Amino acid sequence: MQVGYVGSHLYHLEQGPEANRAVGAVLGGATLLPDGRKFFAAGLPLINPNFGNIQWVSTPGWGWYNGLQLGFQKRLSGGWQLGANYTWSRNTASVDQQFGGEVQGQLVGPMDLDDLPRDYSLSTFHQSHVLSINGKYRMPWDRLLTARVAKAVLGGWEINSALRATSGLPQVIGAGFNVSRSRHVLAADRPDLIPGFSNSPTEGVTAGCPGVAAGQKLGTPNLYFDPCAFSLPLAGTYGNLGRNTLIGPGVFNVDFGLVKNTALTALHEGMNLEFRAEFFNLFNHANFRLPAAALFLATGGRNTNAGQITGTNTFGRQVQFGLKLTF
Q: Is 194 in contact with 232 (CB distance < 8 Å)?
């Protein structure tokens, strides 16, 4: 049995935000509303209208990782062996990529370049729980078999299996377009969280809103989270929702193998025939991808695809057989 702690502090993380933003997106250039929010008027010019988008590299990012690790190893003896590892961790960061762009299909540049702590959140790569178990078991009756036919048929069997289970990855819920008018093409504006709702609304049923009927079950591929928990911010403002608040579907997978070794020493010394039957994703469990998380269209209407999952991270059950002759 092993118990360990792993911790790290990350600093000077690179990011490549948009340099040629709207004039009002420069610190101090925006008008503040009475509630303290920045407001960008419509039609603001770029800082340098002679150029289009300009990406610049800076290193202002930071992050933390803290993890508790448990391990167990039982070496092969008595016909069986077992290994298990579990990690409980928390990974936070203000940025998750270099030079802007996407991670897992998400725009992950800073929403407000003048307020980087606003993006400090769970990292895009955070997984709270990771469990893996593997084992092998050799059938115990070999020593009891004396007849040649019985040994040939019943002897030499063993099974092996591997299990992996993880919690889901964080995801940014986006407004769907540049509602803030900051003209920052490498970041996704985020919506407002409606008071009283969870920032990761994946349990229960939908509350109901335009385009989304009330009472629909959440946490399914048809509707993983409730789009009705969020509203479109006032045009020209940033939403109040944090980064990476939604936790996506977890992963559960079991592989299984059946092996039979048959000694063919009557034909040649040291000759052995190995038969293998291997089952990948034994239980045919669907491990879903992250859902569509752009809530609104540029017209201001709701995106009817928001919350839907259209693919899986793993394949369905696969079975393969093999024979190997060694001599």
A: no
How far out from the chain centre does Cα 287 lie? 11
Question: CA angle 95-297-174, nearest 5°?
Answer: 20
Write down how long the chain is. Answer: 327
Eight-class DSSP state of 149? H
The answer to whether 123 touches 172, Cβ cutoff 8 Å, is: no
pLDDT digits (tens, 9 = 90+) for 208-265: 999 999 999 999 999 999 999 999 999 999 999 999 999 999 999 999 999 998 888 7
CB 221 within 8 A of CB 209: no
> Which amino acid is residue 72, in one-letter code?
F
Q: Taking the model in full, what pTM does it have?
A: 0.85
Give residue 200's domain range. 2-326
User: How many folded domains does the chain comprise?
Assistant: 1
Contacts of 108 (CB under 8 A, 6+ apart): 95, 96, 97, 101, 102, 124, 172, 187, 188
Q: In angstroms, rounded to a whole number, what is the distance separating the alpha carbons of residues 248 and 267?
A: 56
